[in-house]
Amino acid sequence: MTVQETPVSRRLKSVKHIIIVCSGKGGVGKSSVSTQLALSLHASSPNTRVGLLDIDLTGPSLPRMIGLDGHGVHQSSDGWVPVYADAGREEEPRLACMSIGFLLKNKGDSVVWRGPKKNAMIRQFLGDVRWGDLDYLVIDTPPGTSDEHISLLEHLAPVHSRLSAVIVTTPQAVALLDAMKCLSFTRAVNLPVLGLVENMSGYVCPCCGEVSNVFSTGGGEEMAKREGVPFLGRMPIDPELVTVLDGGGGEYHKTPSATLFSAITTQVMAGCVM
Ligand SMILES: Nc1ncnc2c1ncn2[C@@H]1O[C@H](COP(=O)(O)OP(=O)(O)OP(=O)(O)O)[C@@H](O)[C@H]1O
């Protein structure tokens, strides 16, 4: 069967792997996992080229989390130029970011759009941005399985063989129930799952290293085993991570989370080659 070319498939021709990060529930750390995955893939080798796209149109948090708050997107004759998180260094930038947050005049502006307008924006993000050659394009999605997910998958249909998903959950029973809905969505749309991340899984005391199970722990791993999907790892609550991602300063690679997350990234990369 021949797959029809579209503006999106032409634009994403040189993108090797597209990783959709989703969660059943809001606030479980999907954007922070997407951001950490992009940073960690970028740090995995001096040549890895990464894109990070935020399709959470009503609550874009990527610009702040990646340290690009206040930046804007430029239009070129060949489409929108993404904002590079690693611009200004000696080597060519290789961490391209795009979010509706870069297009809003004021970051407090709200986006109140119906489905067709959201659909058009997602098509533009995929088809009108100069993504160039990428090893990985990480896509942060809104919580649940909404219009945005359906639009995304429709536009990405011609490149379906390069798609996979990472599911984020916290250990509480309610979050796990929603993560299960997210997993059944991926099955319904035939989207391969690279694995499940259990976020905010315990709190490690910075003084004594003792782990307190604030929201309990282990539920994500149990669910992954039961459902036959890889368990990518658990990320504890890390106050240093919040400071970095909320724009309070500090460098991500110096946080305890960065070290832990690199093991997750290794598994994601291994899953992508298969
Ligand atoms: N492991 C962690 N340790 C500490 N804080 C975390 C951790 N993961 C996420 N957070 C913080 O929790 C808050 C919510 O995270 P985030 O925005 O990533 O969730 P989300 O699932 O994308 O939310 P939304 O549903 O609004 O899109 C953020 O302030 C983030 O910095």
Jot down its keywords.
alpha/beta, Rossmann fold, 9-stranded mixed sheet, two-stranded antiparallel ribbon, 11 strands, globular, binds adenosine-5'-triphosphate
What does this structure look like?
The structure is a single chain. The chain is α/β, with parallel strands linked by helices and 274 residues long. The protein has a single domain (7-273), classed as Rossmann fold (3-Layer(aba) Sandwich). 35% of the residues lie in helices and 22% in strands. Strands 1, 2, 5, 6, 7, 8, 9, 10 and 11 form a 9-stranded mixed beta sheet that branches. It has a two-stranded antiparallel ribbon with strand order 3-4. Strand 3 and strand 4 (79-81) form a beta hairpin. Helix 2 (30-43) crosses helix 9 and helix 4 runs parallel beside helix 5 (147-155). The two termini are 22 Å apart. The model has no long low-confidence stretch (mean pLDDT 90). It binds adenosine-5'-triphosphate. Residues 23, 26-32, 56, 59, 61, 143, 199-200, 235, 237-238, 241-242, 245-246 line the site of adenosine-5'-triphosphate.
CATH architecture: 3-Layer(aba) Sandwich
Number of helices: 9
Ends: how far apart?
Answer: 22 Å
How much strand content do the residues show? Answer: 15-25%
Q: C-alpha Rg, in Å?
A: 18 Å
Structural class: alpha/beta
Largest sheet entry: 9 strands, mixed
- Domain count: 1
Small-molecule binders: adenosine-5'-triphosphate
CATH fold label:
Rossmann fold
> Can you tell me the residue ranges where pLDDT is under 50 for at least 5 consecutive residues?
none
**What's the β-strand tally?**
11
- Overall, the morphology is globular
Can you identify the CATH class? Alpha Beta
